[in-house]
# Entry
Amino acid sequence: MAVLAATAVPAGADAEGRPAQVNRPAAAYAGAATKQAYAGDIYLLRGFADIFSRGLDELGAKLVEHGIDVKVIGHGAWESAASTIIANQKRHGRKPVVLIGHSLGANAAILVAERLRARNIEVQYLVTFAATAPEPVPGNVEKVANYYFATHGWGEKLVGAAGFHGALDNKDYSESPNIGHFNIEKQANIHQEVIRNVLRIIRPGKGTAKS
# Structure
């Protein structure tokens, strides 16, 4: 099986990664290879200034090791990401969409989902880490995992918008020692949980996986 390449998009670039410049914060990004057939869209959206969300780069690298093609972008590129997903879905037919974000990137991931809702595109899995000012989750999202802090932290609980009938799991990490806003997205056990769920939805080169 060919290993797919994760694309870490620099701040200021669009969701396609233009200009052609790749930031490689994790060693696993370095073994780029041949892409398989388009199996869906997986975007990881970093928070403020691309500084405090490096756990998403680590998570992206781990997904690459499982043969999953991902894009890691700054939260400011969310509109470009939404446009790219819409174009891909039109070109290839309906494929799985997974959105993962931290802090401002979590807020932005919900905005992407809302933009897709307006085009009748479903989001199979939305993961938010310590969202700071999240909009309600739109009704096109099937499954949500929100890692937040009810107290002793900075990260909000999510609620569903009118018409939301998906599965929403707010996971409170308030009492977890040494875990806060700036490292919640770096936790290895959470990475394992997210990866398991992604692999239930997307298998490399296979499109939607059977649960």
Observations:
- The beta strands are 7-8, 41-46, 71-74, 97-102, 125-129, 143-148, 167-172, 202-203, 207-208.
- The two ends are 21 Å apart (CA to CA).
